Amino acid sequence: MNPSQPARPILYQEPVIPFHPVYHTVENYYEIAGPDYETWSPHFNMHFGYCRRFRDIFSLESMLQQMNAKVLEELQIDPLQPARIADLGCGMATVARYAAEHYPLSHLVAISIVEKHVAMAKELNKAAGLENQITVCRDNFENLHLSGNSITHAYAIESACHAASPNKQKFITELARILKPGGRFCIADGFLKSKQPSSGILNGSIRK
Does residue 78 belong to any structural domain of this protein? Predict the structure, then answer.
């Protein structure tokens, strides 16, 4: 992609969110709880942290930012090349802003099913001067209105767990469809798939 050329349209039609009990529940939860995340994180990081160094445990915000850095590190984004990155379940687009600041040649499309988050993300992006680098859309990552083969990198941080389809099949299918050949993705989540207790040392480290 030549940075001097206009980018192809990201959305090929206006998204219409179909009704599904899971989507309705997720949206209701985040509409109510969303503002409280400012207490959790001044930057509105809506996820758990990543402890890369021992001293990180003394700063929650440091661990939250380390999670952002770790996910982007796994994507192996070349900072000298243009990239089109999708944030699937963006919350208030905090990670998208982090990515935009660290990869200034990139363009990000940030997806959320929560209408209030989309509105607030746009305000925060504008305040950060990143509104032209980040496109925020209300959309459903199990039925994305993104063109096929239009994304070079994608990530989902503690959002793929909300996919409604069995075994997250629709989410994975959409991820495969939008990624360019050779594109990379990273899914970071922190929730157990089963209620069955773990064994050994791991079981002793989990507090319920």
Answer: yes
